[in-house]
Amino acid sequence: MSDPTRTYLDFERPLAELEAKIEELESLSSGSGDDAPDTAEETAKLRQKASEQLAALYSKLDPWRKTQVARHPDRPHFRDYRAALIEDFEELSGDRRFAEDNAIVGGLGRFRGRPVVVMGHEKGHDTESRLKHNFGMARPEGYRKAIRLMDLAEKFDLPVLTFVDTAGAYPGLGAEERGQAEAIARSTERCLSLGTPLISVITGEGGSGGAVALASANAVLMLEHSIYSVISPEGCASILWKDSTRAKDAAVAMKVTAPDLLELKIIDQIIPEPIGGAHRHREESMRAVGDAVERQLSHLDGLDSKALRLKRRERFLAIGRMESEAS
Question: The domain 68-317 belongs to what CATH superfamily?
Answer without folding.
Answer: 2-enoyl-CoA Hydratase; Chain A, domain 1 (3.90.226.10)
